[in-house]
Amino acid sequence: MLNKTRNIIVLILCLLSAVALHAQQTKEQLASYYYQHGEYAQAAEIYKHLYDETSNKFYYQMLLKSYLELDMTREAQRLVERRIKDNRKDIYLHVDMASVWLKQDNKRKAEKEYEEALALVTPDLKQTAELVQALENAGRHDLMIAAYKRVREVSKNQYLFVNEVAALYGSIGNYEAMTQEYLDLLDKQPNMKGSVQVSLQRAMLQTSDERLSEGLRNALMQRIEQQPDNRVYLEMMIWYSLQVKDFEFAMAQAQAVFARFADLGAEQVYRVAGIALANNEFDVAEECYAAIIARGESTPLYYESRIGILQTKFNRLNRNFPVATSQLEALRDEYDATLATMGKGRNTLPIMRSYASLLAYYLGDIQGAADLLYDVLELKGLQEKDKCQVKLELGDLLLFAGEPWEASLLYMQVERTFKNDALGSEAKLRNARLAYYNHDFRWALSQLSVLRASTTKLIANDAMELSLLISDNMEDDSTFGMLEHYATADLYLYRNLLDSAWYELEEIKHHSLSHPILDEVLMQQAKIRMRQQHYDEADSLLSHLFDLYGDDLLGDDALMLRAELNEQRLARPDIALQCYEKILIDYPVSLYADQARKRYNALR
Q: What pTM does this model have?
């Protein structure tokens, strides 16, 4: 009986507690509603009642905010004073009191409260977090830094809160102090280099203020002068140079590391070479690879650099057409020598593939290129993905040789093997392009419509570009006459039959002076004349294209190509400068904007 009575009492107490809790939550919701709608008097009345009942920190904060909104500074002052008396360890309350004094325009007393808060700092990290949060709410970033530094003093640990302090310096534009925070950390903990690089990279992305970049460079140079044998700062300078795309300076720093620390230096030089190659900085990439090769076979990354330098020289060909036959033959001899030394295998797969391209598309040795690719397919242990990539290249080679059906069969094999992979999408794209060459435009469009949703951005963009070319230029009568001429010219261009391609493009101009494909025709004719080294005629065609179609999709393409032509081939930097400037002014979001800005500044 006694147990039963006790259980009933417990149940009643639980019910009463639940009712009380529900009532408290309801009051809190009502107070929040009043505060959010600017009815601070009603909010203050409820929050005061809740605070008197519970002494809850949240209710205290909301009551203080309500008082300050109502300019009830005396009530606010008494509230904070009582809270400080009851909670001596909560030093953030002095920041609250400073807010009260500021409300009364008493800056002297407010600053005194801030000083009091900082003087009471202890190694207690929870206490620090509350103080910093209160200072952030007060908008005092300078005092947040002071609070963190005070914790360092009392904790006797100068490396606490480095990221927080550095970020605060960055937020107030003191980039020199921000940089020094990170570099001081590296002095003590060099293994934090990766974390520091991430933080600095984020800061550089978030601000366009040149002071940050310049300050970082100067700080690193100073540390290197002070500690010339400290590898961390040398590596940091290389990293910085790559971030700002100063590849020559990055190379110089990497070679300085290489001179002092052979193993580490080779890795740094090789890394700079790879990034420079990816950014088409061929001179830097070639010099870096050559520096490693010059040290001999025992040098780390020697063989990888042999492959890298060939890739660099081959990639340079694609950017500097035409190339003297003597240069092509010298590069062929380098490929032969490298393969003779390193052999044909999975390690030399990249240079076997690029060598095949050199033989076929530059030296006209189609059979030699095909034989080399077939040798690749026979390599033992070759992964299926690599094998299919080579099949695509072999298909391209067969198309170049005038064997479209055999090429299509290889494309279809790859598509079936990697149906749900980017490689399969690439094969589908090549088959769609082949259908376009063969004037089967409707089927090509049906394939391209699928590829436009590809998860691979490059494939989706290429599919979109070809799809628009076809759909924008299909005549209403469905004869597709001009588009057929253009597709045939496109195929001839791919096969390097320049005169035949020119004839097809002239047929379009002869039959129609208003067809929407004429801008594409002028662009292709300009490229043909460039490949034939008729640079003045190419420049005239590009100028004509821009005059007629400057507002269309090819406007910035024409300007950029004309700028490069005048700078690199015609030695007319004044015209190049005008073209670069026009891109920057009229096409600020162009893909060429960054490159145009770089060349514009160099020419100036």
A: 0.70
